[in-house]
Design brief:
The complex is a heterodimer of chains A (370) and B (357). By secondary structure, chain A is mainly beta. Chain A is 4% helix and 13% strand. Chain A is built from one helix and 18 strands. In chain A, strands 1-2-3-5-7-8-9-10-11-13-15-16-17-18 form a 14-stranded mixed β-sheet, with no helix packed on it. In chain A, a hairpin with a 2-residue loop joins β1 and β2. Chain B is mainly beta and 357 residues long. In chain B, the strands form three sheets. Chain B has a 14-stranded mixed β-sheet with strand order 1-2-3-5-7-8-9-10-11-13-15-16-17-18, with no helix packed on it. Chain B has a two-stranded parallel sheet with strand order 4-6. The longest helix of chain B is centred in the N-terminal third of the chain and has 14 residues. Chain B is elongated and about 80 Å long. Chain B starts with a helix and ends in a 5-residue tail after the last strand. Classes of the chains: A mainly beta (370), B mainly beta (357). The interface between A and B is large, with 78 and 91 residues. Chain A: Belongs to the small leucine-rich proteoglycan (SLRP) family. SLRP class I subfamily.
């Protein structure tokens, strides 16, 4: 507190342009996972050494924090302000800008100019339908970009190659261009659910050379599992689509897959051997589909622990549908198998069907309240 | 009959190893007792322990579960989580045990859900919580028993109509408080509600129904944002005690008078936004103000500008020069303004009188 007063006093006496309140005591959790590249000048950021960019308009000469925003430890917080455009006066050393829940319609060419240290940009919940192809020219360190709940019709072109996480949930994206992710060697998370994307909207080669670990394209218009996603995938979430079958070659590329979400589709068949391509899978969600039997190949998945099959049309369970036979052993026992909301009668199930489960309540055969 | 059949069926199971026969038996019996209960929607994971909830991403103690259509807080969150992002879901209620193991949580993001109820005990385990984001929900009041460690509270766009003193009591670490776009009235703010918030630096109560500047704001305040309200008058004492105030936003109200002496209470004011109001004249006291740099007065009813409205009489005692004065969209004609009204402004472009872009 004393330091704070001192700083304020200092600022007043020297009559420099006002710098936003110094919340330097605020520890910033948001930044904990950011690269600690040039971190040593945190305190200096209160007194920026560089002049603000675009000093042509008189009001830009003034404060180093946009009015109504809060600027501290290189985070600029401007959410919920009803802004219709990205404010000027963003301190050039800013690492994170929070602009969510505003009315921004467009990211213009110079909106982010000079923000070379920017690591995270939250633009979710706006009305953005246009992003200038040169808008991200200066932001060479941008790792996290949140564009969910906007009006974009495609993945913007020329996004920074430095992206680690990209979220474009609930937009109007119909197309992923061949070049959309080009050169994004660090992209690990892609969330683009709730877009009107169908299989033809993904141009061949769009994911070439990228190493995404987690992709979610739920609530879209996919009719089959996209085959050209990155082979690095650990998690693939395709729930709430219109997928009708799982074909043999669907998971050919995704050898490392650990979690697979296919709930709430229209899957009738899983072709024999499909799951043999994903030997490391730990969790498969196939609830709310049209399966008539337990998908083949589960006993061979040594690490499979969770299988959701509830709300399907499964009328019969084979004694070897889940657990391996003979001398073969599972490396991890099942901890969750759900089968409720299926026509199968529990008294017709042979108890030995579940000889490889972890605990008594690992299987849910029928509906009951917890 | 059915039960007897069950016994027969289960008999061989008793011998099978490592099968947990008793368990299976138990849960089937449970089902017998509740045959016509509604189906459960949540399959149980056993022995899994805390793990990253399916479809969420967990990375470096950040648990990211936004945009998943969740209707409740996921169970078994990793106990070392520092940031939990649950925004853009359909959560309706925060229950008592929802955050029970998260004693290291620093930030909790619940923005854009349908929360109308928060159990009074829900936040008790969160001893280290610094940021609580509750914007875009259906809360009628701020939750009780918020952690004392909180530094930032955002509850924009809810249905909050009341601010009770007990809700803020003990929250002496809060620096930022955002309560905009709520159906809040001046009469709904309890006397002394903000008392004890001795670190409060930023408060925003914009786009509500309040008709006056809230009373009893702490002297630590540096920014006060009250735009888009129904304030019609600034009383002389309404800013008293706010000696650290640097930014004051009062645009888009219906202010028709600023009582003389009001601005003397805020000697360190840098930026004053009074645009889009009903002011008939420039507020008094600006001329003597030493640090004011930005004054927005556009879109008012100012018909004339006095020669000493902005600059001090005689010798220039200002310690900071104006960098932005806006007067456009007022009935005053620029040729009626004496140039010396701006004698203490060196940068000509700092004054905007006409309606140009």
């Amino acid at each position: 507190m004393k330091e704070y007063v001192l700083l304020l006093f200092l600022a007043l006496c020297s009559a420099k342009p006002l710098i936003g309140p110094s919340y330097f005591t605020l520890k910033n959790v948001m930044l904990q996972d950011m690269e600690d590249d040039d971190d040593d000048d945190d305190n200096n950021s209160l007194f920026p050494t560089t002049e603000p960019i675009i000093p042509l308009i008189p009001f830009d000469l003034f404060p180093i924090c946009p009015f109504g925003c809060q600027c501290y430890v290189r985070v600029v917080h401007c959410s919920d302000l009803g802004l219709t455009s990205i404010p000027r006066n963003i301190p050039p050393d800013t690492r994170m800008i929070d602009l969510q829940n505003n009315k921004i319609r467009e990211v213009k060419e110079n909106d982010l100019q000079g923000l070379a240290s920017l690591y995270a940009l939250a633009l979710n919940n706006n009305k953005i339908s246009k992003i200038h192809p040169k808008a991200f020219q200066s932001t060479k360190k941008l790792g996290r970009l949140y564009l969910s709940h906007n009006q974009l019709t495609e993945i913007p072109i020329n996004l920074p190659k430095s992206l680690v996480e990209l979220r474009i949930h609930a937009n109007k994206v119909k197309k992923i261009h061949k070049e959309a992710f080009k050169g994004m060697k660090s992209l690990h998370v892609l969330e683009m659910s709730a877009n009107p994307l169908n299989n033809d909207g993904i141009e061949p080669g769009a994911f070439e050379g990228v190493n995404i670990y987690h992709i979610r394209i739920a609530e879209a218009k996919l009719t089959s599992v996209p085959k050209e996603l990155p082979s690095s995938l650990l998690e693939l979430h395709l729930d709430d689509n219109k997928i009708t079958t799982i074909e043999l070659e669907d998971f050919n590329r995704y050898k490392d897959l650990q979690r697979l979400g296919l709930g709430n589709n229209k899957i009738k068949d899983v072709e024999n051997g499909s799951f043999a391509n994903i030997p490391r899978v730990r969790e498969i969600h196939l609830e709310k589909n049209k399966l008539k039997k337990v998908p083949p190949g589960l006993p061979d998945l040594k690490y499979l622990q969770v299988v959701f099959l509830h709300s399907n049309h499964i009328a019969k369970l084979g004694v070897n549908d889940f657990c391996p036979t003979g001398g073969r052993k599972k490396k991890a026992l099942y901890s969750g198998i759900s089968l409720f909301n299926n026509p199968v009668k529990y008294w017709e199930v042979q108890p030995a069907t579940f000889r490889c489960i972890l605990a008594r309540n690992s299987v849910q055969l029928t509906n009951f309240l917890q | 009959m059915r039960l007897a059949l069950l016994f027969v069926l289960l008999l061989p199971a008793c011998l099978a190893k490592p099968f947990h026969q008793k368990g299976l038996f138990d849960f089937m019996l449970e089902d017998e007792g509740s045959a016509d209960m509604p189906p459960t929607e949540d399959p149980i994971l056993t022995g899994f322990g805390p793990v990253c909830p399916f479809r969420c991403q967990c990375h470096l103690r950040v648990v990211q579960c936004s945009d998943l259509g969740l209707d409740k807080v996921p169970k078994d969150l990793p106990p070392d989580t520092t940031l939990l992002d649950l925004q853009n879901n359909k959560i309706t209620e925060i229950k008592e045990g929802d955050f029970k193991n998260l004693k290291n949580l620093h930030a909790l993001i619940l923005v854009n859900n349908k929360i109308s109820k928060i159990s009074p005990a829900a936040f008790v385990p969160l001893k280290k919580l610094e940021r609580l984001y509750l914007s875009k929900n259906n809360l009628k009041e701020l939750p009780e028993n918020m952690p004392k460690s909180l530094q930032e509270i955002r509850a924009h766009e809810n249905e909050i109509s009341k601010l009770r003193k007990t809700v803020f009591s003990g929250l002496n670490q809060v620096i930022v408080l955002e309560l905009g776009t709520n159906p809040l009235k001046s009469s709904g703010i309890e006397n002394g509600a903000f008392q004890g918030m001795k670190r409060l630096s930023y408060i925003r109560i914009a786009d509500t129904n309040i008709t006056s500047i809230p009373k009893g704001l702490p002297p630590s305040l540096t920014e006060l944002h009250l735009d888009g309200n129904k304030i019609n008058k600034i009383d002389a004492d309404s800013l008293s005690g706010l000696t650290n105030l640097a930014k004051l936003g009062l645009s888009f109200n219906s202010i028709s008078s600023v009582e003389n002496g009001s601005l003397n209470n805020v000697p360190h004011l840098r930026e004053l936004h009074l645009n889009n109001n009903e002011l008939p004249r420039v507020p008094g006291g600006l001329g003597e103000h030493k640090y004011i740099q930005v004054v927005y007065l556009h879109n008012n009813k100012i018909a004339s500008i006095g020669i000493n409205d902005f600059c001090p009489l005689g010798y220039n005692t200002k310690k900071a020069t104006y960098s932005g004065v806006s007067l456009f969209s007022n009935p005053v004609q620029y040729w009626e303004i004496q140039p010396s009204a701006f004698r203490c402004i060196h940068e000509r472009s700092a004054v905007q009188i006409g309606n140009y872009k």
